[in-house]
Specification:
3 helices; globular; 5-stranded mixed β-sheet; D-amino Acid Aminotransferase, Chain A, domain 2; 201 residues; alpha+beta; 13 strands; D-amino Acid Aminotransferase, Chain A, domain 1
Length: 201
């Protein structure tokens, strides 16, 4: 089975949303290796005294039945101001895989836009690295069937910050903006105006 991946944010001397990451690992084991005991992420996470406590770091854990690799790198958010809609009805990314080649092929079609917004049968899913939510002037709605159910997304749904909904690309005219988020990026840090979303021709 392909290696899986967890990306965990470390900032200010603490790990963010670790419980949600562990729950995703548990689900992966239940579906892929039901006879095996899930790895416990906490056993592999240590905060080095060499890290700058004011810097955000990405802990990248590659695993299968066992942890294969852990890398720690400083994290800086890549600016995103425009998106291109890319239709990919057959794409599956139910588990967070190390192999992102299928996503990279789509990302390379972004043209002069900063990132892609992937659709399946016209319905919004995710961007290249992020889950998303659309603002309709009253509330943030997030696609109910994303490619990957991210840990930040799960947290925001639980806190009722975002609400799952079916969002077709033709519905974008009813929204003002789209925010992108993931384990490393807090909500409302990356926000794209709907006018800056391009349809793929």
């Amino acid at each position: 089975m392909y290696p899986l991946l967890e990306t965990i944010r470390c900032e200010g001397g603490k790990f963010y949303n670790l419980e949600a990451h562990q729950q995703r690992v548990n689900r992966a084991f239940q579906e892929l290796w039901p006879q095996e005991t899930p790895i416990q992420l906490q056993e592999y996470l240590q905060i080095s005294t060499k890290l700058n406590i004011k810097q955000s770091y990405k802990y990248r854990i590659v695993y299968g039945l066992q942890v294969k690799e852990i890398t720690i790198t400083p994290y800086r958010i890549r600016p995103i101001q425009s998106l291109r809609l890319i239709e990919a009805p057959e794409l599956q990314y139910h588990h967070k895989k190390e192999d992102r080649n299928a996503l990279k092929v789509l990302f390379d079609q972004r043209g002069d836009c900063d990132d892609i917004l992937i659709t399946q049968n016209g319905y919004l899913t995710d961007t290249y690295y992020c889950n998303l939510a659309c603002w309709n002037g009253k509330q943030w709605l997030t696609p109910e069937n994303p490619l990957l159910r991210g840990t930040q997304r799960a947290k925001l749904i639980q806190e009722k910050v975002i609400i799952p909904a079916s969002i077709h690309q033709n519905d974008l005219k009813n929204f003002e903006k789209v925010m992108l988020f993931n384990a490393m990026i807090d909500p409302e840090v990356l926000v794209v105006d709907v006018d800056n979303i391009s349809f793929n021709r």
